[in-house]
Amino acid sequence: MDRTQGQAEPVEQPTAASAPPAAASEAAGPAASGSAPAPVARIVTLTAGDFTLTVNPVDGSEIEPRRPGTGAAVPVKRDAADRSARDAAARPPVLPGPAAPAPPLLAREEERERLVRLLGRGRSVRLTGPAGSGRSALLDAVAADCTGLAPDGVVRLSGYGHQQPGELLHALYAAVYQASAERPERTQLLARVRDIGAIVLLDDLEMGGTALDELLRATPECAYLLAATPDTRAPSDDSHLEEVFLGGLGRADCVELLEAGTGRPLTEEETAWAGDLRFASEGLPLRFVQAAALLRQRDERNLSCAEDDDDEPGVFEERPRDAAFVALPTLAEGAAPAELLASRVSESARAALRIACALGGEMPHHAHLPALVGDTHADAAVAELLGCGLLTPVGTRYRLAAGVARQLEEAGFGDTAAEEARTAARHYAWWTGHASVTPERVASEADAVLAALAGADVVAAVLLARTAAPAFAASRHWEAWERVLRSGAEAARKAGEVAEQAYFHHELGVLALCEGRLDRARAELEASIGLKGALADKRGTVAGRRALALVTDREKAGVEVSPPLRLEPPAAASEAVTTAVPAVRAPKTVPKTAPAAPVAAVTPVTPVVPVIGRAAAPTTLSEVFEEAFPLDPKPAAVAAPAVPAPVRGAQPRRKPVLLAAAGALTVVVLGTVVSLAMSGSDSGTPADGVGPAVSSTPTAGTTGGAGVPGTGGNDPAPDPGTTAPDASDPAAPEPGLSPDPNQSSRAPSRKPSTGPTPPSRTPSTTNPTPPSTPTSPDPKPTPSTDPTTQAPPTTPPPTTGPVGSPSST
Length: 809
Hints:
Shape: elongated
Oligomer: single chain
Number of strands: 11
Distance between the termini: 115 Å
């Protein structure tokens, strides 16, 4: 769309003079592609440490262990020709049109010689200067003087946006070594960069302290020239960096810089204005580059006015008849010239400034401006803005100079930021997904892509992140890859795109696995598998489980794992584990009145995971019930240690359904047995009517058991003709009284629910009926000791028997 005419224009292919051949197909936007073929998926295979990473833009990245003998060869260092090509690629792109003359480097000879001398000795230097003091120009001059001093040459890096040394080390490794399809892990990276001997010029440094110390320790054979601003974090005291401060220019140097920028000597009025400007701006060279642009624009307007005065004005002329003479800018306009400079540039340049304000100061590559602006000749706007001092080079790109973005936003250039960011996001989504665009070119435009992603709406952000993430992964620019994935996951969550959210979490898990962050990898992969399972994506679920299996293998190999994310069971028997030992069953030949073996006492310790161990699984229903409600009480002579309440509460972990069935079945069986016993005792009464018939088999369920004081387990049954015991006898129970809680007890489920109720004890001597002993719910009674007990102290109490058996009194 031509903004000057307000209508669409036929798309023109840029010529060789206006755009490079590689960018000829990218100057037009997606609307101009017309019948262009559909993009083809780019599948790239990389070697990342011990893994082989296959970047698949369609289905997501796949990772697998690297097979022996299939890894990349040992990387070799670049030669001089390769280093020259690499250095040229690290510089900003050449702009279309005639080359603008570079500003001269004035009053920097002393600093230049000192820096070259220190770097030649292998010392690292920190060059500190305010924004606009000419640090980048000084680095260019030092790089030309240091050629041939180091075995690996001079390496130019940009520290803009890097707070950690990891990505800078990878950039240094890629600049020195020939390894296009490999991204080494941290151990391999540190081993290889240690052998690099180069002079590294790091511009726009943003880190300090321990992060900077880590960078310097990782490359002991390199000499660094670090350019930073005064507000950057200072290095630590152990870094041993030389400090060089870069100040402003003097009055004569400022006037000379103005004359070089305007191409003519200054008048007395302009010289005085330059002196005042030097005092207001502290002599920063950037302010005088912008001031020279103001003087050039003033000369052009005044010259055009003088030429028009000689001509006779036309009838249909739109401009005023008498043009006013353009005066010298004020001191305030010279100190903050962005608004005045932007008002005098072309319409395409102003549109490019609006896009840069929407992208946080990042200026897109000049090949993208025709599609973003709507003007086929908008690629020349970058050179126009650079000549005005509104742009400054940063690494391989351009961005707004210091203070320009704030001045333009105050002038109203940021009012359409949302619309411009959405347009840029849609354009970059089309461009990054095109098959003709290499991943390396996408990586060079990473900052503008990330800025468009941050300012776009959720729909455009999801589309851009989905197409840009595979390109960043294939270009080994993994810091930008992670930032795109996290922004895309958040945008997909807000937009409700579950499938895209699952893709971003899967890619984040693969990235964390490649970098050795196993806890993060497990969390991301589990989230992705859950989302893909909800979508019934079987193929994606299988890929996620494969990656998760690699995480498990790495964890088992001894890699540290975050404890809150995975709880491990106790590894050794010495750890605190409570084990329940079942009671030993008596053999069949021993009567039921024989005491049971004592239960093994286990010293309780605070357990981590309660574990119940048993010798063998129960085979019968009675064994299951006996294990739940033990029938053999502990002997009175053995005092078992008290078990803490938390441990006792944690032991019974049995199936409630099985216990309920066992209890119900036992109640029915016991009821039947009691009914038969009672009916048998009634029918077996002697004819003479002297007393009841008593069974000769001793049972443990009578009142003369271990729980009744004054009786023993071996006491004989009472004589049939014996009357009821006297009330004065201390061993005889009183009628109508509840049993002692210390008497022998059974499980509540052993009490019969059916059958005839045994008659109560009466003083009558004819046909007495043995009383029934009530039960107590305590499965482990404690026998009481009475001084009138007749049983020997060494005799253990008998076990309890069925309810309803006659008791010995």
